[in-house]
Amino acid sequence: MAETGLRGPDTTTEDGFLGGRLRLRQYATGHRAGHDAILLAASTRAKAGDRVVEFGAGVGAAGLALARRVAGIDLVMVEIAASLAELASDNAAANAIAARTVVLDVAGSAEAFAAAGLPPDSADAVLMNPPFHDAVRHRGSPDPVRQAAHLATATTLEAWVHAARRLLKSGGTLTMIWRADGLAEVLSVLGRGFGSVMVQPVHGNADKSAIRILVRATKGGRAPLLLLPSLLLNGPSEQPDPVARAVLAGEQILPLAQS
């Protein structure tokens, strides 16, 4: 699929993740990988031999962080912007991680996915960090790559979840991160074809409302909703919480990846 004009600036930086065990090149301006990608990777359950597909991979931060933790997964990174997909592929090679990158619109047809080697019922796990800011309430960045990565349309969530449902095997898991005030929307969309939903709120500070939710759902699952204890990023003194620090350093995983 064509890149449709989504191209970032040429200048890149090299940044360390997981305590320096993962080095990623990314554009100096525009959308840049950060905490959300690492929290998503730390919430994704996978084992060696699993076909794992990352939607909206960007430069590959979440998928490659997962592959660094779980050796032997069959990782496919899906990204609409060819410039970012190229960086993701380069990052995989630079970190000696086996992965395949596909330039593809997540909201594309089943035929487009199949042509890219991603037929229905072929994945064990999908992880995704979709654009989740409401375009009505948030001013879009002038940078087209950053805007596409951040601003959701009215159909973004439904389209991405539908694509995950089609791609996953029965019993496969979808793991995602979304803004906390969109929980009702997430649960509504997951109600079609998913169950056994687990939710972990993420708080920036103990005295503030949650800013993100980490969600895992199982295709065809039947267990009731499970609300997990919150993850706190910063303690009362504004210092990183020890659990969050360990997760971001790749030393600990989150509950969604454990059970």
Automatic annotation (TrEMBL):
Record PROSITE patterns: N6_MTASE
GO biological process entries: methylation
Ranges of residues in domain Methyltransferase small: 39-197
SUPFAM superfamilies (alphabetical): S-adenosyl-L-methionine-dependent methyltransferases
Pfam families the record matches: MTS
A Gene Ontology molecular function term of the record: nucleic acid binding
Gene3D superfamilies in the cross-refs: Vaccinia Virus protein VP39
Keyword annotations from UniProtKB, A to Z: Methyltransferase, S-adenosyl-L-methionine, Transferase
Name of the protein this chain belongs to: Methyltransferase
